Structure formats: C-alpha cells, structure tokens
Amino acid sequence: MKKITTMLLLLMLTAVMVSGCQSTNKDITSAKDEEKSDKISIVTTIYPEYDWAKEIIGDNENIELTMLLDSGVDLHSYQPTAKDIAKISNSDLFIYVGGESDGWVDDALAESTKKDQIVINLLEVLGDDVKEEEVVEGMEAEEEEEEESEEGPEYDEHVWLSLKNAKKLCQAIGEKIMEIDEKNSETYKENLDNYINKLDSLDQEYEETVKNSPKKTLLFGDRFPFRYMIEDYGLKYFAAFVGCSAESEASFKTITFLSKKTDELGLKTILKIESSDGKIAEQIKENTNTKDQEILTMDSMQATTKEDVEKNVTYLKVMTDNLEVLKSALK
C-alpha cells in the first residue's frame, strides 16, 4: 500500500512540474529556483537527524536544512507529499532512518534530479549494531508480526535513542557534509568534534546513573522504542508493545502481567512515551497492590514539531531530560 501511495504522489509531482512550465510566472519561478540552487540542500526525515546536521553546520547560511516530519506525525505512519518528494529529489544530501517505515524512499530517490546526490541510511551506517525487534515476556505480539515472521526479521528503527549510536551517526553525517562543502570542512570538523564531546559527556552521565542506581529494570505501559538505550547500559525492561507497534489497547492479560511485575520488582515508576495518552500506564498502576507509582514520560523524539524546533528544543536537551526521568525510574 505504501508503494502504491508513493507512486501516486510521484505522478502528482510530475503533473505539478508540467503545469509549472506553463505558468505565466515563469521568470519569477526561474529566478527563485536559481537562487535556491546556489545553496547546498540537506533534507532529513526526523528531528534527531535534523538537529545533528544543524549542530555540525553551525551558522553557515549557504546551507538549506529541511526536516520533513515537522508536524508531529509519527515516523511509522508518515507518507511523503509531492512537495516532500520534490525536496528530496533536489537535495544534495538526504538523510533517513532506513527501516520498514521508510519503504517509500526508494521510489522517491528514483526521481532524484541530482547526479551527485549523497544519501545516508542510518541503519546501513550502523551495520551489525542494528537490532531486531524482540518480544519479551508479557509483551503483546501483533498479529501482523506473527503472520510475517517467515518473511525475515524486522529491525528496530529507533537507533537515535542511543547516545553511542548518535556519535557514530554524527560522524557519518559530518563526513558527508565536509565532502559536499570542502571549503568549510575545517569549521564543520571543529563543530563535529565539539558536539561529539557533548554526546560523550552525556553518555558518561548515563553510565554513572545506571551504575549508582539500586534498580536496573524499566517498565513501560506503552510501546517500547528505547531498546538501544537500555542495551547500552545493561538495563532490563518490560513493556506492553514493541517499539514499532501500532497497537494502543493492551489486553487484560498484559495489564495484569505488568502490574504484578511492578509489585514483584518494587518499581515506583511506570513509564510512557510522549505521544501516549497514558491510559495503559494508569491501568497498570490501578492493578498494583499499592497504586502509588509515579507515571513519567520519556521522549522518543518521534513526534517533534516545527514549533518545538523554533523553541530551540535540541537532541541533547531531550536526552538530558530523559536522563532525569531515568534517575527517578531506577530509584
């Protein structure tokens, strides 16, 4: 279905381009296009990619940086518009995650008008460090997953939620930006090194927090996109659904299991993600013996908006806030 939708969008884009050629504003459009072509165009799909590139670029005004998913739409349900595909096809550098949710990308890239276009697939950069989705004890497996199990593994797309991954991915992005704009490569290298040092420092704070915390298990009354993060620091977890699940209603069996696990482990915190209404977490809490757990939110950066960007919300700020939540959850 995603492929059919993408093909329809490509046909729409072609129609728009043909119509544009017949416009009475031809000279004005051409002048704008020429002005845009003087700038290096970098297009990203999700917010972490955008913010990493922004940190590396610094204050260079000769680069036009675009984030496609800027309306709060989830990566797993996003479908590109004809305008989005046009931006991708005209970009010098296109950065995307590369998981199952990005199944539309190949068709979009086939329309590229840039001969020397560079593409970064985050999952390909990480290679063997990419993890398969897993169903742990008490977690509900989707029917679709069970039916498609013979088709091969489904990989966890949420690679940006690991600071260790972030360092590798920023390095790859920085190298390609330096390749595209060699004359400013020294500045980009300096910005990249400074930013990786900040990621390193925060990574060490996470290490220390986990090392000094009495608890080593997280419990999510929600989807669980933080697999990479918890494996970085040797934590365990329980959750209602896998990270890429489209489910929003948990069964009584799942609620009961997670409630008992909360009691068994003496957990004082039940977690949810930023786009959740918190209903499952509340149900888990109400079925525990003490019913006094705190429900806290960890931000997976899957619904970041243009307004968030304008408020200078950054990847480092979100991950620092997540660290504070982690400290509470591991008490």
How would you sum up this structure, described in words?
It is built from 14 helices and 8 strands. The chain has helices at 2-21, 26-37, 47-57, 82-89, 105-109, 122-126, 143-147, 163-180, 185-211, 227-232, 252-265, 279-286, 306-310, 315-329; strands spanning 40-44, 63-67, 93-96, 118-121, 217-224, 236-242, 269-273, 294-298. The protein is globular and about 65 Å long. The strands form 3 sheets. A 4-stranded parallel beta sheet has the order 2-1-3-4. The longest helix has 27 residues, at 185-211. It has 331 residues and is an alpha/beta fold. The termini are far apart. The chain folds into 2 domains: 2-142 and 154-200, Rossmann fold, CATH 3.40.50.1980; 214-329, Rossmann fold. Residues 1-23 form the signal peptide.
Index terms:
disordered N terminus; four-stranded parallel β-sheet; 13% strand; Rossmann fold; alpha/beta; single chain; 331 residues; two-stranded parallel ribbon
